Amino acid sequence: MLIHPTLDLLTSLGLHGMAKGFRDLEAQPEASRLEHAEWLALLLEQEKTQRQQKRFESRARAARLRHAASVEDVDYRAVRGLDRALFLKLAAGDWIRSRHNLLITGPCGVGKSWLSCALGHKACREDFSVAYHRVPRLLAALALARGDGRYTRMLRAIARLDLLILDDWGPEPLDAEQRRDLLEIVEDRYEARSIIVTSQLPVDRWYELIGNPTIADAILDRLVHNAYRIDLKGESLRKTKQSTIAHPAA
Ligand SMILES: Nc1ncnc2c1ncn2[C@@H]1O[C@H](COP(=O)(O)OP(=O)(O)OP(=O)(O)O)[C@@H](O)[C@H]1O
Questions:
Q1: Which residue's C-alpha comes closest to atom 9 of ligand 1?
Q2: Which of 25, 114, 123, 182 is the most exposed place for a label (fewest CB within 10 A)?
Q3: Angle 151-160/135-148 helices, nearest 10 degrees?
Q4: How remote is the CA of residue 230 from the centroid of ligand 1, in Å?
């Protein structure tokens, strides 16, 4: 078989997965017993897997998730208030396809950011576009963008994402500009794209966090309607981690 010209052709066509699969099969003596159709199927499978992996890597890079968390690593015993069945259902990603939201609340350090990143990571695997933002930094970045003409472009980029993670909302109340920014973001995504919001404050206190009753109604109506909720409880996992470091298991 003309191995090198075939490899060159696959590479020049950008079929790097097939090229790798071709080299691997050539190196296996038992592969000579395969039918042509089986060869082709294996090479196409390799190409598909490699493309999916590349796509996932680029999605994950763009998402800029704060934690390297994955849904497979969730410790259900450590996180109190986490319903395993609900979380596994969310991990499957149908809520994103149905354009629903997810609100994760609970005290400091119970794993809100971590779980949101685990779901963000899984969403990247499912080929959704994702971005993670801490709310105070995003609002500060939007205020800056307003001054230098990037505001509309930034909002447009946020609106296009399949999943937007807004981490650490509150406890500071929003000012007038921030309220409007949040309304723009939520309005753009309503019944079109999904949001995860995490906050130490329970959902029934978000109204006062927004400040203006009319805008609070508008934001919360769009955000809370159609939202799944996870209300975590218990001690900070940071403390548990520190005591494990101080007293490692023998
Ligand atoms: N489900 C989990 N499995 C394993 N480790 C976890 C899990 N959840 C959280 N952790 C660990 O606990 C630490 C605290 O979690 P995280 O930052 O998500 O808390 P948080 O509720 O968002 O806190 P804060 O309100 O202060 O932002 C993380 O650094 C992470 O390593």
A1: 111
A2: 25
A3: 140
A4: 14
Q: Which amino acid residue places its CA nearest to atom 20 of ligand 1?
A: 109
The number of residues in the chain equals 250
- Average pLDDT rounded to a whole number, residues 215-239: 91
Asked if 232 and 105 count as a contact pair (C-beta separation under 8 A), the reply is: yes
CATH architecture of 64-242: 3-Layer(aba) Sandwich (3.40)
**Closest to 133 measured CA to CA, from 176, 182, 79:** 182
Question: In ligand 1, which atom is closest to the CA atom of 232?
Answer: 21
Q: What is the mean pLDDT of the chain?
A: 91
CA-116 nearest atom, ligand 1: 18
CA distances from 180 to 13, 101, 165, 173, 193 (A): 48, 20, 18, 13, 19
pLDDT at 243 over 80: no
Collect all residues with Cβ–Cβ distance below 8 Å to 15 and sequence separation of at least 6. Answer: 47
Ramachandran area for residue 137 (φ above 0: left; ψ -120 to 50: alpha; else beta) = alpha
Per domain, the residue ranges of the chain are 3-62, 64-242
The tens digit of pLDDT for each residue in 131-166 reads: 999 999 999 999 999 989 999 999 999 999 999 999
Distance (Å, rounded) from C-alpha 128 to C-alpha 59?
8
